[in-house]
Design brief:
This protein has helices at residues 2-26, 28-32, 35-40, 50-68, 74-91, 118-152, 163-166, 178-209, 211-221, 228-249. It is mainly α.
Length: 270
Amino acid sequence: GGGGGGDCRVAWEHSNRAFVLRVFATWTPAQCLGLPVDAQTLVFPVVTEPGPVYAVLGLRKVAENVAYMFFFTETWFRFRVWIKAFLKNAFTGRCGEPTPDPIYEDEHIDDRGHSNERPGYLRRQIQFLVYKLLSQAVTYCFYLTVSPTLRYGPNSEYYPLSPAGTKVEGDDLEDLDDRNYKNALIFSGASVLMVALSGLLASWYIHTYLPYSKLVLTSMYGPVLTSNLFYGFLISVFASSMLLALSVLQYHNRIWYYREHDWPLSGEEP
């Protein structure tokens, strides 16, 4: 454990900039680009039974986050090594070749998790889960802070969060009334708490069952938390995702609403 930590610190000293670029080029966009999709599910939440609907949506997200920790188990990793080799041999006509065994030693400290080495794979999955939870929390906070401006602000007519922004000639959309909008805000606030609880559960699991992975990640990536470059990349990725979400929702792009008629996007009858 101690030797691994020393190796990690040396690796950081020699490749801190490369690490930051690699992490944010690989993990953060993969998670944060889902931000517009999650945000749009709350754009026009007109439901007749908000209790059951939001309960199902919330529990589904919690179950998804908890189930993700199954990828940390040894059972899953053995299956992963076997199925990768099996499919590769099947598609290349070498079905008779034996499948390799999982590697449990940390032979490459900078392994990116795509090999048969479990330590590197665990580090990748832990990072993936961290950014997955972070992007979910930012999504709901984004809705809580930005949607009131889009609903009540001076540009409300350009977004579907206000009655002025939902009325397009030829459409039969129902207005987003105060009741449905309030329910969406409550769900977003509750979702932030559920994401936080999922994060606490994941943190406990990693601390209890994956102490070596936690030690290595802390040694390697701890210094990044004091790096201005880290926060610059983080802010830029989240900001670009938020701007993408707002662009998709704009009145002029017309991606957000449902149309029953085969009319062109301009809103004019053929």
